[in-house]
Amino acid sequence: MPREVSAASRLRRLGFAAPARAESLLAEAALAPVVAAAGAAGAPLPEALGRAADPDLALLTLLRLVEAADDGGDLAAVLTTDGPHRDRLLAVLGASSALGDMLVARPGDVTLLADRDGEVPVLDLTAEDERERALRAVGADHRDTVPVATVTGAEGVDTLRRTYRRRILEIAAADLTSPDPLADLPKVAAAVADVVAGALDAALAVVRADQPDGARGVRLAVLGMGKTGGRELNYISDVDVVYVVEPAEGTDEGEALAVGTRLAAALARACAGPSGEPALWPLDANLRPEGKDGPLVRTLASHLAYYERWAKAWEFQALLKARPVAGDLALGQAYVEALAPMVWSAVEREHFVEDAQAMRRRVEDTVPAQHAERQLKLGKGGLRDVEFTVQLLQMVHGRTDETIRSRTTLQGLAQLARAGYVGRDHAEELGHHYRFLRALEHRIQLYRLRRSHLVPTDEADLRRLGRSLRTDGVDGAESLEERWRQVRREVRHLHEEIFYRPLLPLTAQLSAQDVVLAPEAARARLAAIGFHDPAGAIRHIAALTEGITRRAAIQRQLLPVMLGWFAQGPEPDSGLLSFRKLSETMGTTHWYLKLLRDSGAAAERLAHLLSHSRYVAASLATLPEAVRWLDDDDELTPRTREVLEPELLALQSRRAEPVPGVMVARYLRRRELLRAGIGDVLDAVPDGRSRAMITTAADVALAGALRVAVAEATAEAGLAEPPSRYLVVAMGRLGGEEMSYASDADVLFVHEPEPGADPETATRTAVAVASKVRGLLGEGGGEPPLAVDADLRPEGRNGPMTRTLSAYAEYYERWVEPWERQALLRARPVAGDDDLARRFVALVDPLRYPAEGLTEAELRELRRIKARVESERMPRGVPPTRHLKLGRGGLSDVEWTVQLLQLRHAGRVPELRTTSTTRALHALHEAGLVSAEEAARLDGAWQLASRIRDAIVLGTGRTTGAKIDTLPHEAVELEVVARILGYPPGRRLDLEEEYLRRARRARTVVDELFYQ
C-alpha cells in the first residue's frame, strides 16, 4: 500500500489528474514493457508524459496507439528514447484527441514526427515546397503550367486529404514543442496557410482530370481572402476564396466561364464533399462580388466593373488581404494589381472611417450575450479588435505610404510602428497580445480539430490549454484565465485608443495630396479639447450655423461657448450630435434659443446633460419642452404622489377611450423619469432621491392603469359595475420604494367579489383586470414600457394571476415558505381599494413580522436559497466582485441580510417594520442589532451599487441587459459612469477601487450576520 500511494503521489506531481488510473494504464500488458525499458534506459516514460498538456489523455491515447501498431518495435524504440521524436509524439497526444485518433487509425504516421537530419524544418518550408509536395502526392507535375493529377476520382480526393492532415500533424508537433510558441506563431499560421494553398492546387489537379483535355483552355485563379490571403490561418478555418477566370487562347469567354464554374464547384466538393476521408474545410466564396447572389466565377474585367461601380467600403477592406493561392498565379496577381488603386483610394469615400468603426461595433453586437465574455475572436478585447485596428490604419495611411501594406496583421502592425503611425510600445504590446490570443485559439481548435473561438469554462479544458501554452506565466487553468482576462482588457484599451483616434476621420477626408498637411485650426481645436471626431463636429456646427436666419445667428453666439462645455463631458461628440438633433426639433420654437442665450444656467446645464447622459439626451428628444426646466430649479424638484395623482385623474377624465387613458399615465411616468434623470446627472446621482421619484412614477402609472383596466374589463363582461374590489400590491424594489431606471414592477394582484356577485364572473373579470394592467403598461404606444411582473405570487408562475383575500389567507396559512415571508417584507399596497389594502396588510404582517422570529430550519432554508442564488444566477463570465446585484457585497447581499434580521426581530421591534432597506438598516442600528460600523459598511456598499446601476443606465442609455448590473470593464464606459457620479476626468479607476473596497467590506459583514 505505501508503494502504491507513493507511485500515485509521484504521478500526481507529474501532472496526472487521475494518478490511480494512470498507474493502472502504465501497468497494462501492452505498455508495461515499454515503461520498464524506458526507465532502464534512463528515459522514464511517466516523466515524459508529464510534460504533455494533458498527461492522462496522452497516456490513454498512447496505450491505444501501442495496441494498434502492427510492429510495436519501432514505436517502442521511440518511446524508450528521451529525444525530440518522443517529445513531439507525446505533445500531440496530450493536446489533440483528434490527431491522436488519426495516429491510432494509422500508427505508421508516427514516423512523420521523426528527426530529419539535413531536411528543412517543417515551419521553414516555403509555399512552393508545400505546393510541390501536394501535387506530387496526387501524381501531378508541379512544373506544369496546368497540373493534372494521375491519382484521380475518389482516390485522388482521399489522397490529397490524407496528405493535408499529415502535414497538419507535423506542423502541430512543431508548434506544441516550440520553446517559444508566441514567437513561432507567425510561422505556424503561415505554414498552415501554405499547406492549404498546396491542397487547393492538388484538388484543382484532381478535378481537372475529369475535364476534357484537363481544362487547359481555361485560366482559373483562386484568390485567398481573409486569413488565407494573409498567410495567418488557424488550424481549422473556413477558407475564404474568390475566383477569377480568363479564356486561354482559342477559347470562347462563355465557355471559359462555364468550365471555370464547374471547376470551382468541383473544387469545393473535393475539399468538403463526401468521401472516404473526412472533409478538410468549407470553401467560402461569399466575399465575391454580390456575395451569394453573384456568379461563382467572373472574368477580371467583370470584377473590375463591379468594384468601380457597386462595391461598398467594407468590400475594399476585405480586399486588403487578397492573394493568389492556387491555379493560375499570374492571373491572380493581375487581379491584385488591377484592384490595388481602388483599395487604397477607398478611404476617400465619405464616412469611410465612421463606417469602419460602426462595422466593428456591429460585429460585436452579433456575439450572443451568453458567449460575449468567452469570445476570443469577435468579442471585446479579442482578435478582431487588433485586426480592425491594423486594417483601418492601413486604409487611412496606406494610400500614400506603400510600406504599410502587408496582408498579415503582425507584419502590418510592425510596419505601422516603423512608419510612426503607432507608438512602438503600443505596437509591441498589441502584437504580443495578438500572438497570445492566436496561440490560445490554435490550442482550442487543436483539441478536436473543430472550428471554435470560445474559451471553455471547464476546469480540465482550461488546465490542458494552459499547460499546452506554457508562456506569459501561464501553466494551468487559473493562470490562463487570469492572463486571458488581462490581455482582453489591455487589447480593448489599445483598440479604443487607436481605432477611435480623433484624427483618423479627418485624415481620411483629406485628399491624397493634403494628407501630410496640418488640419485647419477649427478641427485642431476640437481635437485638442477632447472631441473624438473633429470632422463630424465640424459638420454638426455647419448645419447649426449656416445661413442668415435668426436661428443661425443665435447658434453662432451659443456654440463657441457650448463647445467648451460639451468638451468637459466624457462624450462631447455625442453631446454635440444630440444638441444638433434637439435644435433641429426646437429651433423654430420662439423660446428655445432665447432661453439658451439669455439664461444663466440653461445652456450650460443642457451641454452637461447631453455630453454625460445618453438616457437624458434620448428622453429630451421625446420631451423637448423639458429644456425649460433647466432655467428653474423648482421644476427639477421631485413631485410627490399627492401632486401627481390629481393631475393624472384630470388628464384621464378628458379621455373616454382606454388606450389614451393609460397613455397619459405612461406619459406622466416618462416625464418624471426624465425629471429624475436630469437631477441625477446634474447632482452626481445623490443617494435616494431618484429612487423615490422613479417609484412614485411607477405607483401613479399602476394606479392609472388599474382604473383603465377595471373600466375596460367591466365593460367587456357586460356589467354596469365592477363585480369585485381590486388591489395591486407592490413587491420587490417597487415595494421598497427603491426602484432604479431599469427596474420592473413586481406586484401581487388581489380582488374581493362584491356581495351578491357571481364568483365565476368575478374571478374571470379579476384575471382580465390583472392581464390588462400588465398589457397596458407593456410594450407599444410610444411610451417607455413598465414591465409588470407577478411571479412572486403564491405558486409563482404556476399559480393563478390573482386571488381573493381569503385565498391568500388559506395559502399562507397552509403553505407559506420562508422565502415568501421574506418577499412579503416589501409588500406595499399601491393601487386599488383602501379597505382591501388595510386588510391585506393585516393578513401578511404576522407572516413577515413573526412574533417568535424564525426557526432554525427556516434560517437554514433561507441561507440555502441565498447560496443557490449566488452560485446559479450569477451570469457566466462576470466576476462575482463586479456584479452589482448578485455579486459579493452587492445589493442582494445587503438586502438579504437586512431582511433576515427583520424576519428574526421585527416581531418584537416595531421600528423594523418597513419595506425600505435603508430605513430598516437604520432601525437595526438604533435597536442595537447591528453595530454602527456594520450598518455603515452595508449602507455604503448598497448605496454605491445603486448609484452605479443608475449611472450605467444614464450614461449608456441601456435599460435592459446584463451590463446594467455589472461594474463596467471597458475604459470608456467606466469613465462615463465615473464622470456621472462626480469623479474628475481620468479617475475612473478610483470609482472601481472604491466600489470593490466597499463591497469587500460589506461582504465580511454579510458573512457574519447572514451566514454566521
From TrEMBL:
Pfam families: GlnD_UR_UTase, GlnE. Signal peptide: none annotated. Residues 358-499, 879-1010 form the PII-uridylyltransferase/Glutamine-synthetase adenylyltransferase domain. GO terms for molecular function: [glutamate-ammonia-ligase] adenylyltransferase activity; ATP binding; ligase activity. InterPro entries: GlnE, GlnE_rpt_dom, NT_sf, PII_UdlTrfase/GS_AdlTrfase. One of its GO terms (cellular component) is cytosol. Gene3D superfamilies: 1.20.120.1510, Beta Polymerase, domain 2 (3.30.460.10), Nucleotidyltransferases domain 2 (1.20.120.330). SUPFAM superfamilies: Nucleotidyltransferase (SSF81301), Nucleotidyltransferase substrate binding subunit/domain (SSF81593). Keywords: ATP-binding, Ligase, Magnesium, Multifunctional enzyme, Nucleotide-binding, Nucleotidyltransferase, Transferase. Coiled coil: none annotated. GO terms for biological process: regulation of glutamine family amino acid metabolic process. Residues 88-334, 604-840 form the Glutamate-ammonia ligase adenylyltransferase repeated domain. CDD domains: NT_GlnE_GlnD_like (cd05401). NCBIfam families: PRK14109.1. This is Glutamate-ammonia-ligase adenylyltransferase. It comes from Georgenia muralis.
